[in-house]
Amino acid sequence: MSGEQIISQFVDRLHEEYTKTEVEPTFDATDQNQSTSPDQFSTQVVAAWDGKSPLNDAEFVRVSCRELSASGISFWIGHPPTMPFFVVVFETNDETAFIKTRISDAKPDPELDGEPYLVSAEFDGRIDLDFMPSLAANHYK
């Protein structure tokens, strides 16, 4: 199965699961690791990534999504991105996947007084967890 098909299946499952629950939006502009919006679709767990260095669990934060599709994701963070990539964690009841995204746009959100940054990113394949043993140990046992 191709990476695009895997991502598409996860997005379909996420849409099904998240339409069953509502998340109460909260945003604290002073918290660099938090982000939400009144119009949020869901929350996802992400980590900024340089594309080379292994990540560990402490680098992942929960963000609020604006859009989620088979080709990409947009979400809010409390500061400008400092890395060219994000790793997004997709979890369903029976599987966890770490997906590399490439940032295509990042700008202050004018609809929210420019406080959170709206990041748009395109999915760019699944992360090889042999490269990130900390994540593999915590999520694939």
Structure description:
The protein is an alpha+beta fold and 141 residues long. The protein has one domain: Thrombin, subunit H, CATH 2.40.10. Helix content is 16%, strand content 36%. The protein contains two helices and six strands. Strand 4 and strand 5 form a beta hairpin.
Total of helices: 2
Give unreliable regions as ranges.
Answer: 18-40
Average pLDDT rating: 75
**Total domain modules:** 1
Key features?
single chain; 16% helix; 141 residues; Thrombin, subunit H; 6-stranded antiparallel beta barrel; alpha+beta; 36% strand
Could you write a compact summary of the structure shown?
This protein has two helices and six strands; from the N terminus they run αββββββα. With 141 residues, the protein is an alpha+beta fold.
Topology:
Elements: H1 3-18, E1 43-49, E2 61-68, E3 72-77, E4 85-91, E5 96-108, E6 117-126, H2 133-139
Antiparallel strand pairs: 1-2, 1-4, 2-3, 3-6, 4-5, 5-6
